[in-house]
Amino acid sequence: MSRDFVCEAKGGTGVLLDLRVSPKAKETAVTGAYGEATVKMKVAAPPVERRANAEIERFLAGLLGLPLSQVSVIRGISGRDKVVLFRDIESREVREGLMVLLGRS
Prior knowledge:
With 105 residues, this protein is an alpha+beta fold.
């Protein structure tokens, strides 16, 4: 990932993460980079009745040790390109959690 894939939300409301999602996978996982500043993720849930979005929120909250209420898909509700908002966490913590998962430092 050559550019930063995590940024501060305007107004200090939290941290944003751009995702490219592939639904109906065998398992839910972060799989790497997609382009310059987007993280690629596969999701076990189907893209029906917000199930894939709920799975993304659950997985990322667990990864970062956050309550589910602090993680929300805020853009791309029905598409593959999504933006996730993390509340009450520093961008550094989100970045480090993802980099550890991807085996990078």
